[in-house]
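Case study 2.
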Amino acid sequence: MPKSMHTILLKHDHPMSYEEFMERIFWREGFTFATPAIEIYNKIRGGTFHFDVKTRKEIMEELGLSHSQYYHVLSTLRAVGLIVKYGSEYKSSNEFEYRLKRLIEFVEKWK
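Prediction:
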């Protein structure tokens, strides 16, 4: 079962790039997965990302990731709501934005 929660590092300023945004997601790993996460996310965002052994091995080799690191990146992207898995396909998701909007609504009501 994939992770269902993940902590994102919040700072006073907003991220200036995709890499900085991913660094705030992968902050516990010393930012080492930010660049591979961007590459994987861009592949998924570009269309449907079919999960098969050949594709996985190609991406792992291209990005220099181990099997566990590859799945850690995918699991984290799913946990924060940037991607979703349907069967053997990964797709981009709006869940992250939805969660942020709900958080903003909560804070506004709480004031």
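The chain has a mean pLDDT of 85.
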